[in-house]
Amino acid sequence: MVAIRQVPVRDGDVLLLVGTAKGLFLLRSAGSQRTAWEVGGPHFPGCDVHAAAFDARSGRRRLWAGSRSSREGAVLRFSDDFGRNWTPPGVSPVKFPAGAGASLKQIWQIRPGRSDEPDVLYCGVAPAALFESRDGGAIWSLVQGLHDHPHRPRWEPGGGLCLHTILPDPSDRRRLYVGISRGGIYRTDDGGRSWHACNKGIRADFLPDRQPECGQCVHKFVQHPARPERLFLQNHGGLYRSEDFGESWQDIGRGVVSDFGFPMVIHPHDPDTVFVLPLESDRFTCTPGGRLRVYRSRNAGRSWQALSQGLPQRNALETVFRDAMSFDTLEPAGIYFGTRSGHVYASRNEGASWKLILGGLPPVVCVKAVVMGEPAVPRRRASSRRPHRKR
Fold first, then answer.
1. Residues near 243 by beta carbon (within 8 Å), at least 6 away in sequence
2. What is the largest distance, in Å, between two alpha-carbon atoms of the chain?
3. What DSSP string runs through 162-226?
4. Helix (H, G, I), strand (E, B) or coil at 386
5. Tens digit of pLDDT for each residue in 264-276?
6. Strand 62-69 with 73-79, pairing
7. What is the pTM of this model?
8. CA Rg, the chain, in Å?
């Protein structure tokens, strides 16, 4: 039996939830210095953990994890004591209803709702579908409006048809975005009853029609509460920005070594600053030239800077998956990412320099950073641009 190490967690600590192909690990840094890390886990040893989240709303301290094994299948579980006890595997509360024509294969995303909706949670799964809970996670329901969308037959399975990104719009409680691999970006403006594609201007180089209404392979997209009309997108091929709630997209991929990649994060305090980690191509999903570099834009994608200090620049043929990059909300912000080779890197200074904080893990597929005792939503730093007037 695998021994599971527990780590103490206190207010002010930084906690990293690191999901891997063989279990969930918790990395804890005492206080805000982020110089030394204690490792706990593995939780769910031997299980594939593609999704993890922390819910601090309404005084909760709840860890969520989506695990999958050949014995248990895909299961959503939570812990209120930092992993000492988890809800039993049993039957996952997230499951397709009878007659849906689908069965749960993988949990790809767990997303707490807005801070003023403390009992709302969302879950994205494979095959691509969105589930919602309005009672803190006890009961989950399939969002039927998206599941019944007429585009569904046109979504291509590709490497796996999954719903991996969920963005509740901070400016409108009725608006929600989702990202579907080989489907595209979809938005609802009426709380989930109806959805429309938001893929205008996004290329799909792998399809005969390179500007289709749907079928794009979105890898990750992000939004900042200070500028909710703006979205950034890392696509299967291409980097994009939207200034109109996803209605149209502009290419911002000039200045990066490659516009192919998976992860993307936005600075917690600055809506003009975004980070990506480019890979060679869909045929060679490794860092270009064996150099591990994060790229940062401080002007909303108009120019990019390579950040490599402390990262290996020779023979580093690494891969970083779509959810394996995260930030904390301290000043300066910390940025973290994990690799398929089991390394976890951290920057305490917004990417200016990096340090390997842990190696030897199974392939890392998910990284989430949490500052204990902080509000459930990031603080806002004033943007250099004028605030947008809500429609």
1. 229, 230, 250
2. 57
3. -EEEEEE-TT-TT-EEEEETTBEEEEESSTTS--EE--TT---TTSSSSS-SS-B-EEEEEEETT
4. coil
5. 999 999 999 999 9
6. antiparallel
7. 0.94
8. 19
